[in-house]
């Protein structure tokens, strides 16, 4: 057995491709030799291949074995060399899977997909956002960028990239140019709003230069800092602290209103807020309102204008961004009708 151990020790330092090549040479060489030397025992090449594979993986079942001296020499060769090479091959395959999982967990693998959503900055807010994305669309992946040494969450369709979001190679690894959108969350470890928003500004500047066409959403700690982002293109700003405070005030004056807000912004259950394209037959807001109402949906806004119910006679502009409230089933039904 010391020969096998010696072979394994030497083979561990050999490249994977050479081990694969050597294993195939041993297996198919022994298969050819066994079939040519003992055609009575191994009536087909597959019978010989079966015997070789059983021998190198289990030292044989004993149901089929060579009878001639030459055939048994081939068997001895397999005992000594075949088991060693195939054992090393299996070990390297297992090691490759382990190395892949380890690199994935450490955020060192590049994401190759497209249409995904990139989340920059890990926090409890980012975790809730990732879960909401997965619940909203079963086909969209999430890529998290953070400086953590290991993935903060292990879920299918969530990928982790370890690195600084202000560096191009990190954004390249996250395949940001092929992303659907990017969410930049404020760093919870920074208590000073000015420093925190300054860090977000640096990240957004890098994102804009690297992938100018990606939809960008940024969390801002202080509304006064929005003007500092005027030279970069940010699609939307989220004022997290102010939003929570305003929601708390509304709840204080109107009990239960927070549940209405949560219902609208979460897609995990019930009615949700959706964007719907303008139908060619809709000329006025009134026509769109009544057409959607008959389908079980309620038209509520055009962009950030919520006074549609007072403008039903007005024509819908070509660049309208119509929003409605309905359940997922109705939404998908209306999308199919719009095609």
UniProtKB/TrEMBL annotation:
<keyword id="KW-0813">Transport</keyword>
<keyword id="KW-1133">Transmembrane helix</keyword>
<keyword id="KW-0407">Ion channel</keyword>
<dbReference type="InterPro" id="IPR003148">
    <property type="entry name" value="RCK_N"/>
</dbReference>
<dbReference type="Pfam" id="PF07885">
    <property type="entry name" value="Ion_trans_2"/>
</dbReference>
<dbReference type="InterPro" id="IPR036291">
    <property type="entry name" value="NAD(P)-bd_dom_sf"/>
</dbReference>
<dbReference type="GO" id="GO:0006813">
    <property type="term" value="P:potassium ion transport"/>
</dbReference>
<dbReference type="GO" id="GO:0005886">
    <property type="term" value="C:plasma membrane"/>
</dbReference>
<keyword id="KW-0812">Transmembrane</keyword>
<dbReference type="InterPro" id="IPR050721">
    <property type="entry name" value="Trk_Ktr_HKT_K-transport"/>
</dbReference>
<keyword id="KW-0472">Membrane</keyword>
<dbReference type="GO" id="GO:0034220">
    <property type="term" value="P:monoatomic ion transmembrane transport"/>
</dbReference>
<protein>
    <submittedName>
        <fullName>Voltage-gated potassium channel</fullName>
    </submittedName>
</protein>
<feature type="transmembrane region" description="Helical">
    <location>
        <begin position="12"/>
        <end position="36"/>
    </location>
</feature>
<dbReference type="InterPro" id="IPR013099">
    <property type="entry name" value="K_chnl_dom"/>
</dbReference>
<feature type="transmembrane region" description="Helical">
    <location>
        <begin position="73"/>
        <end position="94"/>
    </location>
</feature>
<keyword id="KW-0406">Ion transport</keyword>
<feature type="transmembrane region" description="Helical">
    <location>
        <begin position="48"/>
        <end position="66"/>
    </location>
</feature>
<dbReference type="Pfam" id="PF02254">
    <property type="entry name" value="TrkA_N"/>
</dbReference>
<feature type="domain" description="RCK N-terminal">
    <location>
        <begin position="114"/>
        <end position="239"/>
    </location>
</feature>
């Amino acid at each position: 057995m010391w020969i096998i151990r010696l072979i394994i020790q030497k083979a561990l330092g050999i490249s994977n491709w050479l081990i694969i090549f050597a294993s195939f040479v041993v297996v198919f060489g022994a298969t050819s030799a066994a079939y040519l030397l003992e055609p009575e025992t191994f009536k087909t090449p597959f019978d010989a291949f079966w015997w070789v594979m059983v021998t190198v993986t289990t030292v044989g079942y004993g149901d089929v074995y060579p009878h001639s001296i030459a055939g048994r020499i081939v068997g001895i060769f397999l005992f000594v060399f075949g088991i060693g090479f195939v054992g090393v091959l299996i070990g390297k395959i297992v090691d490759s899977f382990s190395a892949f999982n380890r690199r994935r967990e450490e955020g060192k693998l590049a994401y190759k997909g497209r249409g995904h959503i990139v989340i920059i900055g890990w926090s409890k807010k980012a975790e809730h956002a990732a879960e909401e994305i997965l619940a909203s669309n079963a086909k969209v992946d999430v890529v998290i960028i953070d400086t953590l040494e290991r993935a903060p969450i292990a879920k299918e369709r969530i990928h982790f990239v370890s690195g600084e979001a202000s560096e191009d190679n990190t954004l390249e690894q996250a395949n940001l140019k092929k992303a659907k959108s990017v969410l930049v969350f404020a760093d919870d470890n920074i208590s000073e709003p000015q420093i925190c928003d300054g860090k977000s500004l640096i990240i957004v500047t890098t994102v804009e230069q690297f992938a100018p066409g990606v939809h960008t959403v940024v969390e801002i700690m202080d509304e006064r800092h929005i003007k500092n982002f005027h030279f970069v293109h940010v699609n939307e700003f989220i004022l997290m602290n102010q939003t929570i405070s305003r929601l708390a005030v509304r709840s204080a004056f109107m009990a239960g209103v927070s549940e209405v807000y949560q219902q609208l912004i979460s897609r995990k259950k019930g009615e949700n807020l959706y964007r719907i394209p303008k139908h060619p037959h809709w000329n006025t807001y009134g026509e769109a309102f009544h057409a959607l109402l008959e389908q079980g949906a309620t038209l509520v806004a055009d962009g950030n204008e919520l006074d549609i119910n007072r403008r039903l006679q007005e024509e819908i502009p070509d660049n309208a961004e119509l929003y409605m409230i309905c359940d997922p089933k109705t939404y998908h039904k209306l999308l199919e009708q719009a095609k």
